[in-house]
Amino acid sequence: MGGFGTWELAMDYPDLIKAIVPLCGGCNDSLNICRINHIPIWTFHGEKDDMIPIDETERLVKRLENCAGKIKFTRLENRGHGIQDIYDNDEIYNWILKY
Fold it and tell me: What is the mean pLDDT of the segment spanning 48-67?
C-alpha cells in the first residue's frame, strides 16, 4: 500500500498531513479527492509500470487540477513500478521540508 496508502492516508487525515510524495499509486476514493486540494503533492509514476497503470495517477492529477489542487506530477520515462530509488533524490526532501 505504498502509493495507494499515501493517497488514502492523506484523504483520511487531510488536516494532519502537510505534504505527500506518492509513488505509482492511486486512490479508491477519487471522487472525494478535492478534500486534499490544499495539501502540496508531488507524485511520481513510471510510464512502463505493469503493476499499477500510470492512468491511476493521471486520473488523480486531473481531478486535483480540476479542484485547484497543489499537484506536481513527474512521469518517469522508461521506468516501471520499482521506482523507490526516487527517494534518494535530495530535491524531494528539500521540497517536502518547505511544508
Answer: 94
